[in-house]
Amino acid sequence: MNKPPVEVAIAILYREDAFLMQLRDDNPNIFWPGYWGFFGGHLDPGETPEIAMERELMEEIRYAPPVIELFGSFPTTEVIRHVFHAPLTVPLEDLELHEGWDLGLLTREDIVRGDRHSERAGKVCPLAPPHQQFLLDFMARGTRLIG
What we know:
By secondary structure, the protein is α+β, with helices and mostly antiparallel strands. It is built from three helices and nine strands; from the N terminus they run E-E-E-E-H-E-E-E-H-E-E-H.
């Protein structure tokens, strides 16, 4: 019997020409350990992607964007990724990292190259390939950035 795909809500958070990303914990029991990825997570039973996105951002970095919009939903046989985008309107110092190893603003150059150095990890870490592709698509569409 086939399991239904897992649903997740993830966020492209941006300020000017940079994108906030989380360095995922270096834990082999999670997807993309030690990679840069988006903040977000699984939908709880009965939860809409929009509510899940708001909840996850509060749980992970204590941030409530002034506006959040759906970029798109991207299904595979294993996972349905609901990708949102929102401006980052507070300084990085105001965010409280409650999940992940590090956070940082990645430039367009970092995204195209596919990696970024983390001070906390003390090394250059790669971007999770699906998240890199979402950002490349987001930038290519010329989506109007509000923040």
